[in-house]
Each structure stands twice: as C-alpha cells, then as structure tokens.
Amino acid sequence: MFNTPFVISFALLLSFPLLFLFAPQIFPPKHVEISIPDELDDLALFRRATLASIDGGGGAISRLGTTNPRMKIAFLFLTNTDLHFAPLWDRFFANHDGLFNIYIHADPSSKISPNGGRVFKGRFIAAKRTQRASPTLISAARRLMATALLDDPLNSYFALVSQHCIPLHSFKFIYNSLFGSQFPEYRSFIQILSNESYMWDRYTARGESAMLPEVPFDRFRFGSQFFVLTRRHALVVIRDRRLWRKFRMPCLNEDSCYPEEHYFPTLLSMEDPEGCTQYTLTRVNWTESVDGHPRTYFPAEISPELIYKLRESNSTYSHMFARKFSPDCLKPLMDIADKVIFRD
Questions:
Q1: Closest CA to 68 of 142, 172, 156
Q2: Cis peptide bond upstream of 111, omega within 30
Q3: Cys-Cys with 310: which of 53, 144, 322, 332 at CB 3.0–4.6 Å?
Q4: Is the peptide bond before 213 cis (omega within 30 degrees of 0)?
Q5: Which own/partner pairs from 274-279 qualify as long-range (CB within 8 Å, at least 24 positions apart)?
Q6: Percent of the chain predicted with pLDDT > 90
C-alpha cells in the first residue's frame, strides 16, 4: 500500500505547474500598487520642484525646455500605448517653438514606436507602472506636473492629455484663448461636480469612514481626469500630502473605485474653488460608454461636422481637445487637419 501522506505530497507537487498555468484565470489580477521606493522617489521630485519654484520659479537650468520670455503651455501626455496620433500633434505644434513644452509619461510596458512624432523625441520622463481606476494615474499626473514645474519657470498652463486625445483647434487658437482675452481670469479648467448619483458608492469604496476627517462627503467631488491647470494649482497638487494619503488607499469595492476622477477636483475645490472654472476643455462622450470607457470614434465617423460638433459646449467657451479616438482615425484626421481642425 502507498503511504497516504506521501501520496498527498506527491499530488500537491504535481499540481504546482497547473496552479501557475490557471491562476491568472482563477484569480483576477490586483491593482498595481505604489511601492515605498516609488513613493519616496516621487516625494523627492515634488520637493525639488517646490523648492525650485520658491527660489525663482523653476530653476536656473532647463533640461527639456528652452529659454524664452513668453509664457508657455506644458503639454502632459499620459499614455500606456504607442502615441498613434503623433503626426497630427506634430502638425499642431509646427512653427510654434518656444511657446510650449512636452512631457510624456509612458507606462514602462508600453511599446512606443521609435519613428514617433518629431516633437516627441527626447520628451519622455522617468515613468512608473500605471493602471486605470487606481492611484497610479494620480501619481503619474503629479510626476508630469512636478517635472514640468522643475524644468521651465515659463510653463504657465499644464494641459493633461492622453494618447487618445486630439486637438480640436490650431495651437495659435488655443494659446491665444488661454493667455488672451477669451479667458482674462487666470484660472484652471477642471471639471468639478458634486451631485452625481454614484457619489456615495465611490466615496465609501474604501470604507464608509475611510476618507474622514480630511474629506467629508459634502466636500467629495468628481470630474474628468483631463484638465488644464495654472502653475499655481500645479504647485498645490504636488505639495499635497494630506488628501493623497486618503486617495492612495486601496478600495474594498473596486467596482466603484476611480480615484483619478476624484482626487484633483476634490483637492482644488477644497483649496481654491474660485480659482477653477468648474469645467473641462476636453470633450468626452459618455452617452454611449462601454464598461466604464467613453465612446470611441472610428474612421468612418471622422468628418468636418464631427469636429464642429465636438467643439460645441454648453457655455461660451469652445472645447479645445477631444477623446476617445481609435488609432486608425489618424489618416482621416490628417486629411482634414489643415482645412478644418487647424483652420481658425
């Protein structure tokens, strides 16, 4: 007869390869966690950016930016895939050197084409892993802001966009709108909402009292994760420690956990509500969302009429960016770029 303990041990040994094979299907992957070394790296970066801003606005040496007396827009690209619309952005930025800087946070797992847009070369910052519906997206955005603050004291607006975003106007139109007469008040363009039906579920995603006392429910806000912030508000974001400790906590109810849509509007509405417009400049269509993702536009839909429609808003301003577009929209977008998108 076989020894029973021996049989059990042998069976367990044989099961290990099967466990490694089927575990990913049996146990869903956890959210990417922010490690202590990553957190310490970020804190050191935020400290340097804060001190540089106090000492003189951004430091004497610019690594990525160029010296120019005119105020600039820092474009912060947050991506986990290739930059499919690089040729469109190339055309958008053409002939406007000295009025912008570009910073790209690309997830280390993303495969970026070496033949990407001309303006994107050499613009990548030190990046960490990111995952949707997790605090890693907050960290990535803060990392981009801190790098831009530290790099060039003339970076005055900070526009966060994704690889799925496209410009809806020419660079000249957007620059003149931000720094000209259309928006005479120097404020941040960030969506801030408070009466959405799902707010309580999202507020209690970490536990009913987890956000207290720093964030009571009546101060909890929601908004698009894509925004255009003033330099003053970018500094508010990287200096924050109090709210970050709450929003970086893991969620118990992951179905209601979208910290990247709540951290920035909650923080800025608590710190400086009058300094925010309460609306975003990035058009997103949520009426036909799928699995929590906004509507995606495909090549057959690209037309001048679509661009004009996406520009429209419920206020007096025009949307300046839009998402979400499939990568194969590049050709039809390029076909109408000069005659429609960049003709203002």
A1: 156
A2: no
A3: 322
A4: yes
A5: 275/187, 275/188, 275/230, 275/232, 275/233, 276/187, 276/188, 276/189, 276/190, 276/192, 276/233, 277/187, 277/188, 277/189, 277/190, 278/190, 278/191, 278/192, 279/189, 279/190, 279/191, 279/313, 279/315, 279/317
A6: 74
User: Which alpha helices (DSSP H) does the chain contain, by range?
Assistant: 4-26, 36-56, 86-93, 136-151, 171-179, 199-203, 231-239, 242-247, 263-271, 304-311, 330-336
Separation of alpha carbons 199 and 77, rounded Å: 28
The Cα–Cα gap between 344 and 175 comes to 12
CA angle centred on 31, ends 27 and 32, rounded to 5°: 125
Q: Would you give the distance in Å from CA 238 to the centre of its chain?
A: 14
Residue 325 DSSP code: B
The DSSP code for 251 is: P
Distance separating alpha carbons of residues 173 and 86, to the nearest angstrom: 20
pLDDT 10s digits, 107-145: 999 888 877 778 999 999 999 999 988 999 999 999 999
Structure tokens at 305: 């009429």
Report CA-CA distances (Å) from 222 to 72, 138, 186, 317: 28, 14, 22, 21
* Chain position carrying tokens 């290990």: 16
Do residues 145 and 125 touch, judged by C-beta distance below 8 A? no
